[in-house]
Structure formats: structure tokens, C-alpha cells
Amino acid sequence: MSTSPYIGRLAPSPTGAQHLGNARTYIAAWLIARSRSGQLLLRIEDLDTPRTKTGADEQILVDLEWLGLDWDWSENLQRFTLQSQRASRYHELLEDLKRRELVYPCICSRTDIENASSAPHESHLDGAVYPGTCAGNDVSDAKQLDSLDKKYAWRFRFSKDENMTWVDEFCGIQSCIPSQVLGDFIVARNYGPIAYQLAVVADDHDSGINHVVRGNDLIYSTYRQIAIYNAFQWQPPIWLHIPLVVGPDGKRLAKRHGDTRISALRSLGWKPESIVGMIAKSLGLLDSERPIPLAELLDLALTNPDWLRKVPTTNVQFNI
Ligand SMILES: [Zn+2]
């Protein structure tokens, strides 16, 4: 366990408006950080969002504050970090990976991969496993692709057949052979922004994040992120992957399940205390649902130091 002061983060993406599922993860992350006298930073993951979608950042702040969440300013006195402003840092890291041949250029399309990937290798939450079609490439092969104006991705090479084991503070011991179960993964493309996995690791490392609370749909991403931490010889954080809010079909909450956006509920007259109460019940902090302000929920968490161990380990559904 890390002995340095707890530093966690909220990392909303402006691609879709914040909904009840996001709210539950943020509230859990906030409760865990605050109940351990920790800091909580805010990062807006706007890599894939065209800048035309201005106003999305502001909407996120409004939604978080309306729920009662607060966060700390970063060391360089920013209220929040925007991934879109860190491109040069990500590219510097990509160049480092290239110098060490830890990545290779891959020209496969999504369809190529789905067709080449044999069914039993489908990874549970993660789509088709990359079959290694371009794994024989080395970094210098990109030169020819560049001269032909071809689109390609940079894939990170997992150590072949090596087992990776790590401990999730919520889910316990995790173990698999990533090169077989997940396959090499994309860290960048020669068109478009740096990929999520590299950006997240760079951001978490650079801002001193040592605890990451997020939804368990990202549990397989953790293997990829650990491989990146190891490549740079950085200390990985402690991860807590908590179960998701799902729709009646058991799938991750999405638009087709109806409008559960925080902003929509607010305009329907919902009070933040009611949403916090519903989430508190789902986290096992309340026996029955009742409105409760977030500050009061923190008191409840502080008087029940074991609360995290009682959070249900199955995905939850909300009836609204
Ligand atoms: Zn390929």
C-alpha cells in the first residue's frame, strides 16, 4: 500500500452528458477520497471531442457541483486539466516508446481485426483481440507508410506469454496473460489524437494520482495501463473498479435506456439530495432510499469505515 497522501481524481468525458452511472462513480470516488482526507483532482477527458462542442466542459462543472461534489486545484493552480491541452506531453512519451521499439505501426482496420480474430479469443468486455497481424513490423516501417500517406496506428507490444497480476482494492487479485487475452493495443494513431490508454497513464502519473476509482468496464484497460507504467518505470496507482449502473438489459447505462442525464433529471425537478440518496442506497450506505445531501453522506461513510467492503459487487439498476 502506498504511504503517500491519497490523491484521486474525477475524470469525466464531455462526449456524452453526465448520467446517473457517471454520477455514482464520481460520488464513490469522492467519498473514498474525502473519507481518507485525500485530495481529488478534476480532469476532463476531451481527447475525442471536437472543440466545436464548447460548453461541454462548463456543463460538466455545473452537473458535478449541483450534486454537491467538490475537488482540489492542481499543483500548478488549475481548476481542472484538459487532455486536449497536453498533446505535446503525450507525443514526447510516444517518441520515447518508439525509440525503444515498444510500439509498432499497424495498418489493420477494425474489420480486419474482427475477421482475423478467432471467436474463442474474444475478450469478455473488450471486443476482438488483436491477432498480431503487424507485430513483425518495427518502428522504421512507419517511414514507408508515411511516404505512401497511409493511415496507421501505433500498437504497444505486450511481453509475449507473460502473466500479469495486480490487486484491485475493490475486486481483489486480477491475473491474465495480456498478450493472449487482450492482444497488443493502440496508444496512438498517425491521424487523430493520442489514444486513451497512453493519455490516461501520462495524466495520472504527471499529476501524482495514486488512487483511481472508476467503473469496472475499465478493468481490462488496467492491464494495458500497467504495461505503460512499467515501460516508463513509473509507480502505478491503486485501482478500485466498482460495479456499473446498468439498464434493464444488463448493459452499461446508455441513451437507449432513457434519459438519465443529470441535467435532464434536474430540469424534471429532481433535487440533488434525491439522486445522492438513490446512489447511497445502491452503495449500501443507506438501508432504504431517502434524500440526503452529499456532505451528510460523507459523515455516514466516516462513521462506517468499513462501508466500502459492503458495496454490492454486482452491477446495479435504478428505477426512475
Ligand atoms: Zn495490424
Detailed description of the structure:
- The chain is α/β, with parallel strands linked by helices and 320 residues long.
- The chain folds into 2 domains: 7-84 and 208-310, Rossmann fold; 88-196, Glutamyl-tRNA Synthetase, domain 3 (Alpha-Beta Complex), CATH 3.90.800.10.
- It has helices at residues 20-35, 56-67, 87-99, 110-116, 141-147, 178-181, 196-206, 219-231, 262-267, 272-282, 294-303, and strands at residues 7-10, 39-44, 81-82, 103-106, 153-156, 164-168, 172-176, 185-189, 211-215, 238-242.
- The protein has a 3-stranded parallel beta sheet with strand order 1-2-3. A 3-stranded antiparallel beta sheet has the order 4-5-8. A two-stranded antiparallel sheet has the order 6-7.
- A hairpin with a 3-residue loop joins strand 6 (164-168) and strand 7 (172-176).
- The longest helix has 16 residues, at 20-35.
- It is globular.
- Zinc ion binds at residues 106-108, 133-134.
Distance between the termini: 39 Å
CATH class of the largest domain: Alpha Beta
Structural class, by secondary structure, is alpha/beta
Whole-number total of structural domains? 2
Task: Please report the number of helical segments.
Answer: 11
Mean pLDDT: 91
Unreliable sequence segments: none
Radius of gyration: 20 Å
Beta-strand percent range: 5-15%
Name the CATH superfamily assignment of the largest domain.
HUPs
Strand order in space, largest sheet:
1-2-3
Q: What fold name goes in the CATH topology slot of the largest domain?
A: Rossmann fold
Summarize the helix and strand pattern as letters.
EHEHEHEHHEEEHEHEHEHHH
Bound chemical compounds: zinc ion
Task: Tell me the total number of β-strands.
Answer: 10
- Could you give a short account of the major beta sheet? 3 strands, parallel
Query: What is the helix content?
Result: 25-40%
| CATH 2nd-level architecture of the largest domain | 3-Layer(aba) Sandwich
Q: What is the molecular shape?
A: globular
